[in-house]
Here is the input.
Amino acid sequence: MKAVYFDVDTQIDFLFPAGALYVPGAEKILDAIARLNRHAAEKNALVVSTMDAHSENDPEFRSWPPHCVAGTWGQLKPAATLLEKRTVLANSPNKIDLLGVRQILLEKQTFDCFTNVNLDALLTNLQAGRYVVYGVVTEICVKLAAFALLKTGKRVELVTDAVRSLNDAAAQEILREFTALGGVLTSTSAILAG
Here is the structure.
């Protein structure tokens, strides 16, 4: 079954204590993220790495501190999470050329990766039968990606030891809702063994 891996918002501003919007403990999942991304490449699966790419005066900054401003250090993904054959897919209409690409850096300006105008067409083109989801923040961006992917009717797996939350109680409720809707909880070791 063809798989697409969703590496959600694993950017410096979220993953490290020096980041502008640090998710406590997120640096502890960096190794799992890197291993999952490399595993996907070894299995010839595409990795869609969603990335905030905000403007300096982004409306989101009324609710959250400024973070992941396009072109800044904090907006970058750690080198360990990047694959050699990658391309950036900005949030503007683009022709999608996947020849030789193993990782798409999918830029977005809101919590929901499906606000990138290219994502629906990309998924239609890929015709995956399975999605593997991980990253930050469980109860916000990871939730939106996973729940939207469930609506495709395909198998969606959430890697529970490769996500981090800001609110553990809210995250646990999201996991319950996810499984109630048919989602599958899994682990890094289970994915790597597959």
The chain has one domain: 3-193. Residues 3-193 form a domain with the Rossmann fold fold (CATH 3.40.50.850). The mean pLDDT is 96.
